[in-house]
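Your task
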Amino acid sequence: MSYREALHTPYQLLLMMQHDRIRVDYGAEKDEVVKVSGKELLKKKMERR
């Protein structure tokens, strides 16, 4: 993403894009890469409350 694109992108969308990364599940037996979307992270966060 270029500086100009980041400048004109809403802040909330930038935060969601930041959380839309590939994450590693360290509890698994093997080193498996677990892909988690922003919606899934938000759902887990809301369930904890």
